[in-house]
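Worked example 2:
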Amino acid sequence: MRFKGLRFFRTFKVFSAALLILLIVLMLANLGSCNSKERIIKIGCQGVFTGEYESFGEEQLTSMELAASKLSPVKVGGFDYDIEVVVKDDEGNPEKAFLVAREMVDEGVAAVIGSTFDGTTEASLPVYEEYGIPLISPFAQKTDVFREGDRFFRMIMNNEQKVLNIANFIRDEIKPQKVLLINNREEYSIKLVDFLWSLLSDYGVGLIGVEPMSIDIEEEDLGVIIDNFLIEGPDTIFFCGNYSELATIMEKSREAGLQSRFITETLGMDDSIFVLTDAQNLEGLIVVIPDPPSLAKYSQDQKAVSFWHDFNDYLAQMDTDDISIDGPGVYSPYCYDSVFVVIESIKKANSIMPGDFIDELRSISFDGVAGHIEFDSNGERLEPKSTIFVVKDGAWVRY
């Protein structure tokens, strides 16, 4: 009986030891799993991924994943963290955008990049403000995007900054005596020219008339309009409208002997303008576009060139059957830089918690693909730069 009891006791000890080892292994495995989950930085990618504008979402996601692949792992608090891009489609719908923002909060994202449109950005922002999550916008350009708190950061210049740069260029570089401002009666053109008028008026620049001129070259006698130009005698004409309209106006003006300098903005810059009229009629045309010098046409900036190559290489590795884009879009560099400024802020704060790194994000000073990035007290880009081109010998060249 004693031997049987001893054998039972030894068997029990062996069984207990094996069970204890198994429990320890399971605990360590579970602990390792928990640590793995904790060592992930989630960055939200909110945008349009279906329908007519899906290409915007595709370029956004590709740019963000490219950035994540370059930055992971991130050392924070002595541990390595991988970056996970959390993708949510708000379909360009403000109501859906509000719900998507709630979903992002539930996902535990550290920051969100998006959304594609002004309306969806406005709808999402109150949610992110409520939960203290920074929203970095590579797209929204509407100046008065609804903002009650301090969690909104804009990577791209807003509409007012775009016009301010035009006004400053006219005042500081052109120094005109008599300026004629013209819109083409479309809403965008009217708003831009009206704001430009108010800025130049405040600057004391000589403006012709008591308000901007509005013309529709398809409905009005352009000959009469050009005769009025000759009577007013402007040394500088700013026209906001399509390049085809601009080509017609400049051609008729030159034929009438008007030698005024012409200035335009983004809508007026297109290579197709050179097939619409003789290049001599366009000589000296100036355009001020909101793209920073590093990204503007003909850029040889090394960071920009490297980004374009990296984007295309990354895209080539993906299943392109499900993707409509074949290269980076206009907003891709801003989406790419957005991830970098978030991670840079996290590294400086040594924390992945938004409440800890938000001050570092506000004071960020970062040289990205889209130029030097700093934010003012409202989360707007600080002194964003435009690029100026001029037509010389039938081609666009840097001013």
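The two ends are 104 Å apart (CA to CA). The chain has two domains: 38-157+300-373, 160-289.
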